Structure formats: C-alpha cells, structure tokens
Sequence to fold (69 residues):
Amino acid sequence: MIILVIILYITLAIYEFVPLYKQKQWKDFWVNAALWTFSFTIGSLIALNVDIPSPAPPIREAITSLFGR
Fold:
C-alpha cells in the first residue's frame, strides 16, 4: 500500500510542481510544497497503519474557550 501512495504522490508532484517551477511562481510553489509534504506524511502514516489522533477534541476546546457554550 505504501508503494501505491509513493507512486501517486510522485505523479502528483510532477503534475503540480513542474509547471509552477517553469513559470517561476515561487510563492505558489513553496505553499504547494508545504501542503504536499504535510499530505504525504499523513498519507504515508495511514498507509503504514499508524494510529493518528483526531484533531477534533482540541479544536472543539479552542472554539468553546473562544465563544463559550
């Protein structure tokens, strides 16, 4: 499964990064690279059956502390 994730992300990287690099859109390139890296990390961890905690409880607590009940 991890091989499939790697192949998919390499294909996605070629499709997304090459045009941005050729057009010298550096801001878009680096934002895309950061999001791609985060997404690849999460996708790889899921493919390796690593238990990832849900971000819902901390988000719920933050919203509750800002706006109250």
The chain has a mean pLDDT of 93.
